[in-house]
Write a sequence for this structure.
């Protein structure tokens, strides 16, 4: 069975600090997809990134970066120089590309000015 | 631009009533999904559909049903609403590149 664990329920940082959100997954599939979504206070789900299991290259997009490590079944998300606008709930998700997407419970990030 | 919409955005109903939540997408995606979001659980899959006339149960399908009569719509019906079904409901559709697009959500309160 597929499972996603986000062990950090809540994180609070001060603006300009770097912060890493952890995501650990479990799957028996050799082909799978990993995602991060952002849910700001307004409630919508904003897609951030998709990674397939064959691409372990780390990715950087502005202040955001993602570290995918199959050896530890982790797909961690780092925000560099955090800003107040980064305050949101962040979800990590896993999909086998066939049926459904399994979500972690989410990490609530609060960035204080 | 293609989009996915949900209606109503907010709904208050009473225990025992039948409720239908609408989901409409203009992406022309075959795959559509309904999730519920509850504190501490993230999003959990209720039902999904791979195309017209196809429906499948997800992780938390009891008390819910869906029908798929066309590509664009996947309405979710609560047969007899219960207080445990108070939640935020998200509809999603998935494209060929496996990215899921989510609707804005419907906040349902069952009194």
């Amino acid at each position: 069975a597929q499972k996603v664990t986000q062990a950090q329920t809540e994180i609070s940082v001060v603006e300009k600090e770097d912060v890493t959100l952890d995501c650990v997954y479990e799957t028996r599939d050799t082909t799978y997809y990993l995602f991060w979504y952002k849910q700001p206070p307004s409630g919508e789900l904003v897609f951030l990134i998709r990674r397939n299991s064959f691409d372990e290259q780390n990715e950087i997009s502005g202040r955001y970066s993602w570290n995918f490590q199959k050896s530890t079944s982790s797909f961690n998300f780092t925000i560099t120089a955090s800003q107040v606008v980064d305050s949101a709930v962040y979800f990590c998700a896993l999909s086998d590309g066939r049926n459904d997407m399994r979500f972690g419970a989410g990490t609530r990030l609060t960035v204080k000015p | 631009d293609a989009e996915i919409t949900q209606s109503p955005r907010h709904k208050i109903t009473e225990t025992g009533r039948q409720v239908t939540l609408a989901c409409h997408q203009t992406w022309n995606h075959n795959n559509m999904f309904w999730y519920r979001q509850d504190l501490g659980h993230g999003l959990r899959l209720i039902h999904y559909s791979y195309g017209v006339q196809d429906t499948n149960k997800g992780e938390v399908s009891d008390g819910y049903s869906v029908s798929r009569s066309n590509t664009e719509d996947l309405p979710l019906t609560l047969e007899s609403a219960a207080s445990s079904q108070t939640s935020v409901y998200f509809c999603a559709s998935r494209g060929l590149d496996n990215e899921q697009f989510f609707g804005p959500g419907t906040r349902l309160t069952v009194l």
Notes: Chain B is about 0% helix and 55% strand.
